[in-house]
Amino acid sequence: MPDDVPDALPDGAQHVHTTDLAVRWGDMDAVGHVNNSRFFSYFEEARVEWLKATLDAATFAESGPVLAHASCDFERPVHHPATLHLDVYAEPPGRSSLTTHYAARLDGSGDAAAFGTAVLVWVSAETGDPVPMPDLGLE
After folding, report:
1. Residue 74: is its pLDDT beyond 50?
2. Most buried of 37, 48, 99, 138, CB within 10 angstroms?
3. 80 DSSP assignment
């Protein structure tokens, strides 16, 4: 687990994944920094990497996560070129839901860029109804 865990991270949350993402020129807005909406895509990319590394493809044929809630606290503007280091944390899952947390930091300096949270609900691919979470190896 990274040494500098976000302050607002719940006690039961576990570090589950790390990835580095390059900021693309197209991520910038008219003011010259990464558009705030892009952080939700960065969090999604890190989350999907983690889930694909944890679960087999057959699981996704039957069920998968839908986003029920997402939030982000922005700490500082990010400018191209940059690489963001993203850490993903997960709380112990409920029956069909899971809360994840994200820390995006500038690679090199380690300065915090943004912290996010997402609530996922696991649903049947056939019906769209909530179903029990698959085993993600979380305690």
Report:
1. yes
2. 99
3. S
For residue 130, give both structure tokens: 């909530």
Q: Rounded to the nearest 10 degrees, how much is the dihedral formed by the CA atoms of 22, 121, 1, 37?
A: 30
The terminus-to-terminus CA distance of the chain in angstroms comes to 15
Domains of the chain: 14-124 (3.10.129.10)
Give the burial class of 138: count Cβ atoms within 10 A of its Cβ; 0-12 exposed, 13-18 middle, 19 or more buried: middle
Using alpha carbons, select from 121, 70, 101 the residue that is nearest to residue 1.
101
Rounded to the nearest 10°, the torsion over CA 119, 122, 128, 131 is -130
Q: Is the CB of residue 135 less than 8 Å from the CB of residue 122?
A: no
pLDDT in tens, 16-45: 999 999 999 999 999 999 999 999 999 999
Please give the helix or strand (H or E) that residue 61 lies within, else none.
helix 57-62
